[in-house]
Amino acid sequence: MAKGAAEPITDEMIYQAIYEAIVEHRLAPGAKLSQDELGEIFGVSKTRVRPILFRLAEQKIVTLEPNRGAFVAKPSLEEVRDVLAARLVVEEGIMRQVARNVTGGQIAELRALIDAERDARLAGESSRAHRLSGQFHMSLAEMTGNPVLVDLLRYLISRNAISIAMYQPNVGSCSLQGHSEIVDALAARDEERVVEVSLSHLRDIARSLDPAAVDSRRNSLRGAFMAR
């Protein structure tokens, strides 16, 4: 490659860009993911885009419809509640393990994420706020040192992000107060309180889902990636 030439885009980079546009709510549930247009956006052929969309479909955050193409998933309210129920089970285990082994440095890391999310919300940077909200929970999973738990929670959070965009279009993805209470309980080394607050936090999300508030935005593909 000649010196100064742009780094060629990889399939992983394309996957990550589409994934982030969906979970950060830059693409609404039901948005069409045209292979031709995505190819133009990333400067690649649509044959490279196709397997990336299949990968996203396997994760249940994209749906593939015969003779129509790919779309951001539009989960039913029942499916959304099932995902949240799974998160309750997984995150209880994560919280117990973290509560028993958390360090002062990790608590400071979590508080920094909360501060960054608060700043993003105050600045009206909703995509960044959604990303940081998810990162808070992912950081807790990473603190277990168990890569299987990390992958499992990432999968659940990805699907949860779509449901929040669909059934909570005007509400933040998570409560900053809930996150702060989790960290305070961790700092106090109170395992039962950590679990209680964490599960209450997730149940609050479930209670706030509104089937009458389905997001009908239809922002363009190009606009979604320009907002990165």
Keywords:
single chain; 228 residues; mainly alpha; three-stranded antiparallel β-sheet; 3 strands; globular; disordered N terminus
- Average pLDDT over all residues: 87
User: Treating each run of at least 4 consecutive H or I residues as one helix, how many helices?
Assistant: 10
Beta strand count: 3
Beta-strand content: under 5%
Q: Note the main sheet.
A: 3 strands, antiparallel
Note down, in words, how this protein is organized.
It is a single chain. It contains 10 helices and 3 strands. 67% of the residues lie in helices and 4% in strands. Helix 2 (35-42) packs across helix 3 (46-58) and helix 6 runs antiparallel to helix 7. The chain has a 3-stranded antiparallel sheet. Residues 1-5 have low confidence and may be disordered. It has helices spanning 11-23, 35-42, 46-58, 77-101, 104-122, 126-142, 147-167, 176-187, 191-208, 221-226, and strands at 32-33, 62-65, 69-72. With 228 residues, the protein is mainly alpha-helical.
Brief synopsis:
The protein has 228 residues and is mainly alpha-helical. It has 10 helices and 3 strands; from the N terminus they run αβααββααααααα. The two termini are 27 Å apart.
Write the layout of secondary structure elements.
Blueprint: H1 11-23, E1 32-33, H2 35-42, H3 46-58, E2 62-65, E3 69-72, H4 77-101, H5 104-122, H6 126-142, H7 147-167, H8 176-187, H9 191-208, H10 221-226
Antiparallel strand pairs: 1-3, 2-3
Helix pairs in contact: 1-3, 2-3, 4-7, 4-9, 5-6, 5-8, 6-7, 8-9
